[in-house]
């Protein structure tokens, strides 16, 4: 023990691997005991053997103490010298064990690797109770506690750092057993050899990770590196995106336009309802209209926007759609000119390509711009519900790169657009305008429109693969054609539902939420995106915030 | 927030009078419109056929800004429902980041029924059941049927 007394005269070195301490001038900076180079020179005020920051006075401690008291049945048996005995506290009886998991010893190894940095949490002291507390931001805290005592000097023997395998197995049972919610993450260790302490802390940490306040007990055991990866990804997920889109700014909310309900919004049935409260609106009632043209009671939309900046119906970000809206207003004058400067991406469409549908050159969707003076877009509020499915259809089409279109061509590089693309916002209204035409009984017009769309798409260098546009349009017509030909309220509701259900299914199938327009809103797109990408490779995407 | 409460009433009356096929919606407590009892018959084309599953819906106070909390009260052998006393369900549309106020309980019920027909094995709560579903469908069906019979609500 005396070798552990810090003396200032001769620099000492501490090994994180086996907790051995030696004089630097005797053995250098490689551990003479275990050959590890994971060492630190002990300095006054920076002694790795000191306890990590301890936060003691939170609720968990009380809970832990009580449970320690109640849980004596799980106290280690008398052969304490055997090694470690973990008693998971609280509601997780030992009976609640997972099935045998032969891979786990190997997995544990990787966990240890991951947790190298936590090794310093345990220090070679005679009898210690430590509590660890990590603030995990929005996910809450992660706390756990270990109690260590050892009996004799052999504890410092670097030759016996390994745990008896049996104990690992029995521990693993508890460690990885899927537990019910609310299991306190504290673990107690008693009478263990100190050599095992490091692992003890790691295990307790890992367990806290798995079963603790983060709610990772869902499928809460790791049997492979993949699982481990998943758990880590979920941590990212939970920390950063726990409740979806961020709140809208006050300014953004305040600047949303309001308007009285007009005849167009009511449609033929003279009835319409706010999809948030499902209450009917009357002609002339003032409602808030988002830039995606979905409208709601002002009092209904506000609490939602204060939590999330997306449209409750189509989930388009209001900031994004506003940007598109503003951009459109700024570009209004240029749309009908012969330049395509605004689109920035296209090649000039030769005039010979002009079809019966007048189409200005420019980015792909702008072919519709001339159908209707842009100013009137905002006065057609009954259209915008088409916005969302159309949007999606276009996005989907774009993202289906490398699929042959119906001309036998292959398209590459389905291009992701930023959210202020011409697709967003009011321009899409013109899509719906064209859609009206398309969906009319004039099938010739419909064919023409589609052809025109394809041709222009080919022309404009945006490479939107639209091979199945017609299908899309069909689908859209079924899904979203409701606002354009509003009927009675019941019908509207039915269609709303069917749309929403489809919408839900589509999202689910399209790696849910992995939508371009969401990307920009995240604070840490890189990390999140990685986690999301990972998820979408494995399942349905962003999914597992797992609140339950 | 009187308006969303009205919505709860409206949704309930719609769901109870005109429930999705094979479903029955009632209140756990007549005085509380925010806790629903939903009985879902096992879809005919699934191993859950013949079963009846009790599902609990709790609508939070700030519904529809927050999704309803859905739990299975009847034990079910399904990879998207936790095999514990809680019976948590994993449905994409209920996740906090996927929920939107325009979604409605009826759609959630339909989504649950859809899950009974086709489980989402890519996003399981019970990994082993998902694996079994993918790799040993016969065994899965057998077990699911067994449980369906055993725990019928």
Automatic annotation (TrEMBL), chain A:
Gene3D superfamilies: Zinc/RING finger domain, C3HC4 (zinc finger). Its EC number is 2.3.2.27. GO terms for molecular function: ubiquitin protein ligase activity; zinc ion binding. It catalyses: S-ubiquitinyl-[E2 ubiquitin-conjugating enzyme]-L-cysteine + [acceptor protein]-L-lysine = [E2 ubiquitin-conjugating enzyme]-L-cysteine + N(6)-ubiquitinyl-[acceptor protein]-L-lysine. The keyword Aminoacyl-tRNA synthetase does not apply. Pfam families: zf-RING_2. GO terms for biological process: protein ubiquitination; ubiquitin-dependent protein catabolic process. GO terms for cellular component: nucleus. Residues 368-390 have a biased composition (Polar residues). Residues 68-77, 469-520 have a biased composition (Basic and acidic residues). Residues 274-315 form the RING-type domain. This is RING-type E3 ubiquitin transferase. It comes from Microthyrium microscopicum.
UniProtKB/TrEMBL annotation, chain B:
Its EC number is 2.3.2.23. GO terms for molecular function: ATP binding; ubiquitin conjugating enzyme activity. Pfam families: UQ_con (PF00179). Residues 3-153 form the UBC core domain. Keywords: ATP-binding, Nucleotide-binding, Transferase, Ubl conjugation pathway. The keyword Nucleotide-binding applies. It comes from the Eukaryota. InterPro entries: UBC (IPR000608), UBQ-conjugating_enzyme/RWD (IPR016135). This is E2 ubiquitin-conjugating enzyme. It comes from Microthyrium microscopicum.
